[in-house]
Amino acid sequence: MTDFPPLREELRGLAPYGAPQLDLPVQLNVNENPYGPSPACVADIATAVAEAAGSLNRYPDREFTELRTALAGYLSRDTPHGIAPEQVWAANGSNEVMLQLLQAFGGPGRTALSFAPTYSMYPEYARDTMTEWVTGHRESDFSLDLDKAHALVEEVRPSVVLLPSPNNPTGTALPPEAVAGLCEAVGDGGVLVVDEAYGEFRRSGTPSALELLPDHRNLVVSRTMSKAFALAGARLGYLAAAPEICDAIRVVRLPYHLSAVTQAVALAALRHAPELLGRVDDLRTERDATVAWLREQGHTVADSDANFALFGTFADRHAVWKGLVDRGVLIREVGPDGWLRVSIGTPAEMTAFKQALTAVTEEGL
Ligand code: PMP
Fold first, then answer.
1. Does 170 contact ligand 1 (Cβ within 6 A)?
2. Residue 365: its pLDDT value, please?
């Protein structure tokens, strides 16, 4: 008897990716921005969507020219060299951007490389595009040993290197010299993707990899509107790279992949960038305070340039996670054994988290 449905062999028995979506009062598990848009921003988005609705009988602008121009303008703040619209590509979340990168540059007979612990979706992009997946390892402080990284690149000759900076789940940022050196090591035989999903939260003094684009044509810098931009529900991710890379992605994208509604929402949100990003400084302050508090309690905490903190280590992290759930606080059981990750919320949410964690640890967990 044949199994039904006739799934690819390597997909049999696998569960879909995703953090538990539990309806708890304090949600600190998927690194969202806790601050929603203002009434003025909501009104502007609603007007833009209403306008787009009038022509939903037509397919959207396949090249999303206006959105690409607006995103280029936004990114240009982070590099003295500026970013041109033809250097920008966008899709439904940076998840889709990266899947498209693997579709274009990975595939059978090719290898994608990252360094663990790293974002847990990466192996899934590789699996879905039939790209071989190889992981090196980060050091005990979650930094990259560049000599070891270069040696692995030499050995594996990857077509795609995926490097989140700041890294998820550890929060570790990569210094620009490391990115530049790895771009050289990868050479024209591959692309190096710096996933800056949390880029806007980095501590001052760490430049964005966007600054390196003029010197490295194999560099891709990926961003998202889901985190600092407080727009996770709209699904808009994007990248900056050499125009040849954007042209290559165009070959694998589905036609009209960005709906007219998505384009309208993202454009309206970009007009409110100062407001939507206005809370980033507050979140960074809250992050530093949370890291300091966790350390005062005797926990080990990874240095974080993102809107979350990885802390531990617990003999039974699941019991700690569950103890917090029982107190209405949802965090994430992710990362190396024994560690837990908490997203940075509002001051009230962080107070609830601290009280719950204190209660749980007092139980001796
Ligand atoms: N990259 C990293 C490192 C992430 O943590 C996430 C989301 N958790 C993403 C990419 C994907 O984000 P989105 O698809 O919402 O843009």
1. no
2. 66
